[in-house]
Amino acid sequence: MNREGTIDSLTKGEAVNGMEWGAMAFQSLITDSAETASEKGFWDEPVAMDQYAAKLSLIHSEVTEVLEALRKNQGSDKVTEEFADIFIRCFDLYDKLVDAGLADDDLYAVIMEKQNKNAARPPKHGNKWG
Question: Measured between alpha carbons, how far is residue 70 from residues 34, 84, 86, 129 in Å?
Fold first, then answer.
């Protein structure tokens, strides 16, 4: 999975240097996504806030592609591929925001905390529709 191969040799639940497998896998995806995007020229220009906004727009376009794949009945492979694009773009942008000091660098832990928080919330988070 990761270019250094650190994840491939682990099994779920193991830890290396105090980092659990899930966190390592997440960090590997973030690093690989960011490195590929940089290698392909997506971050060549000086980074400005409007560049972050443009990247968020690209994430939105990938979400729309999931909707279109569903609407056009393009099959589960296409839907899954478009979801992969969403995560790749999100991980790349997240990495750049961490580098700029605009996001914390422990996304995995925050997701786990958020999952626990959401699990304790009422159905539809107390709203009429979700």
Answer: 28, 15, 15, 22
pTM of the model: 0.72
With a CB cutoff of 8 Å and minimum separation 6, the contacts of 51 are 43, 45
pLDDT at 14: 63
> Any idea where the domains of the chain sit in the sequence?
15-107
* Mean pLDDT for the stretch of residues 19-23: 77
Q: What is the 3-state secondary structure (H, E, C) of the chain?
A: CCCCCCCCCCCCCCEECCEEHHHHHHHHHHHHHHHHHHHCCCCCCCCCHHHHHHHHHHHHHHHHHHHHHHHCCCCHHHHHHHHHHHHHHHHHHHHHHHHCCCCCCCHHHHHHHHHHHHHCCCHHHHCCCC
Q: Given pLDDT bands bounded at 50, 70 and 90, which one contains residue 15?
A: low
With a cut of 70, say whether residue 2 has pLDDT above it.
no
CATH architecture group of domain 15-107: Orthogonal Bundle (1.10)
